Amino acid sequence: MNIPTFIAFEMTDIESGYPYAVSWSLKDGQYKTVLIRPEEEWLIDFETAQFNSDTPSVQDLLDKGESVLDILKEWDLDLEDGELYCQDPISTQYCLDLMFEAYQKECEYDVISEYDCFDNIDSFDLDEQRRWIMDTEGLSATNSEDIIKASIFLYARTE
Known about the structure:
Blueprint: E1 7-11, E2 19-25, E3 31-35, H1 58-64, H2 68-78, E4 83-86, H3 89-101, E5 110-113, H4 123-137, H5 144-158
Parallel strand pairs: 4-5
Antiparallel strand pairs: 1-2, 2-3
Helix pairs in contact: 4-5
């Protein structure tokens, strides 16, 4: 089975934040998850932002996160077809643009709603199945890795 590329981000703040974690699926059904080391310009509004309580400290991200440039290089190898399926195309596009703009690059990936990947199931059914998978597997809807796991499970169940 060839799994589509699913992607999910975790952000410090929806309004003015930056991505601090990203997960994506590979064609063989495996996935990768990394913490993102924030770019210096992302930290300008750090004092005024309303950070999510689950957000790691900036120091942890600086110490343990992967550089944006290293992530972009890894994506060149992993994201072959250029189509990225996600639950929230608007925030995903925002995160991708932020990461690519940090290196004066333009995002060349097509961000597509996950609903378009499951054209044989109506969206209500899809949401119900996703909730069931999240509940039975003990997954969190706010954790990027768990979101990707659920997407892979859901894809495998519906194909």
